[in-house]
Amino acid sequence: MTKKKVVVQEVGLRDGLQSIPQIMPTEAKKAWIDAAYNAGIRHIEVASFVPPRLLPQMADAEQVVAHALTLPELRVTALVPNLRGAENALKAGVHRVVAPISISEQHSLANVRKTPDAMIEEFQRMRELRDSESAWAQTTVVAGLSTVFGCPFQGYVPEQDVCRIVLKALDAGADVIALGDTTGHATPRHVGRLLQLLSSVIEGKVTSLHFHDTRGMALANTVVALDYGIREFDSSLAGLGGCPNAPGATGNVATEDLVYMLQSMGFETGIDLRRLVESRDILKRAVPDAPLYGYIAREGILDGSVPQQLSSHGVQS
Amino acid sequence: MTKKKVVVQEVGLRDGLQSIPQIMPTEAKKAWIDAAYNAGIRHIEVASFVPPRLLPQMADAEQVVAHALTLPELRVTALVPNLRGAENALKAGVHRVVAPISISEQHSLANVRKTPDAMIEEFQRMRELRDSESAWAQTTVVAGLSTVFGCPFQGYVPEQDVCRIVLKALDAGADVIALGDTTGHATPRHVGRLLQLLSSVIEGKVTSLHFHDTRGMALANTVVALDYGIREFDSSLAGLGGCPNAPGATGNVATEDLVYMLQSMGFETGIDLRRLVESRDILKRAVPDAPLYGYIAREGILDGSVPQQLSSHGVQS
Predict the structure, then answer these.
(1) CB burial class (10 A; 0-12, 13-18, 19+) of residue B291?
(2) Domain-by-domain residue ranges, chain B?
(3) Which residue of chain A is at minimal alpha-carbon distance from B157?
């Protein structure tokens, strides 16, 4: 029996750290990447290439990327809010650049100081830049759509707006589309409806989902997304995270809880949950004031746990 | 368009209160019942009929039931761990008696000091008692199975053990079966597998599910249970709860979060979420030391919320 694989991308180093006031030292970031890697994580969004004056937390992006690239088979992603950032990230050698494209105009202006349509134009320039150097041919250009399920400013985000931006992002050259629930508005049926709609428009292009657990819906949403064939999810160790330009957003879903659920459902993540939980110690030491979340870390991993015993009873998919 | 209805049964007055050291005054219990009723809740498990020396928190069960019965259309349930308790509950006039029948022998011994099979025999005597008086003919006898998805003592609970007890409980005269994840072991695929298995054995007899959010899986589990046609769920206001004889168990899933999710999915609960959240004030005043949980209460209800706007866009099921 082979299990279905699911990719869990750790985004705490970017989405988590950008939302807390304390700056994590570069050495601690490297230690975090190493610990995640040693726990089996093979996809990490390690940094955001933004001007240090806007986000001092990310001033060491190049060094962090350089370290991450030393780890075999680690897929290294960076967020790039503009062309300059994309150029720096491409030069640094990342495997994937993600451009944050908000569906909500107000959120887009707050987050990247561009309208969604202006951001699509910037995104097209990023794609053209990627194509301009053969050395970058293997770098994936991701349209990271944000406020897909709701916006702290405008509230409801119409599904037709999402469709419009998705189609424009593909026209502009997106290799793949990632959907972000930036502020935890998503609910299970909304996730199902939107994925159904998008799959009929652009089958196979939406590859990953990014849930925040603001209203406790992240894992329920994940169950629905799995039903719709999504096999890549973002999460943050200890639920670290949020969005500095989105009032009310709390952290991403905790990586430990997501991995626990996925494993219990028979999915192969390649991740050692115990090592993952132990890696929280790095956060406790390096950013002691940041609130840490997560059910599994609190309750402990069940010894001879239900997931493993279930899987020996044939619960595999 | 008619929405599908889902019953949310508030169990905080029983499962919640039995797990905290502070005793809630009878008047506060009545106020809680009134507030829940005014928020639209029509199913409440109001008490447990146990000897007061074992559970002083429930010494006022008769008074609490008497008050609940004054509210029109409120369906009043009581937990009854033995025949004596069932007799008292029937005499008090409850609409449903629930007998806690553990699948796990160790948990059963800790909880009711009987093996599962001995508890089934007791349950059969409860059913016979119910049948002995025409005045009680309308009272539903529920087999409330506990540790269905795992046990703090034995760990994994085999599905064949659940099947065996379900069949014995039906033989013993259960009108319906409720499945309890007493200590938050359940995970989405486990829920789906067990409901699939049981539906092929005893279609239509499993009517409700009872999840604890110990490991953060309760809402994800609920999504799966909804897929399998379950339309009744237990929950506790503010996630109050646990099980005194199950180490590590934290509260039931928070009623507010469950209702939020169900409404966002287009289900009709009849519950006013704002009033429900406001009713937490009763707990803050009456049991100030009890930890209160819940995402929706923390984040606030979205004004012009996504669920309502979505439902005006036709999200109904």
Answers:
(1) exposed
(2) 7-312
(3) A306
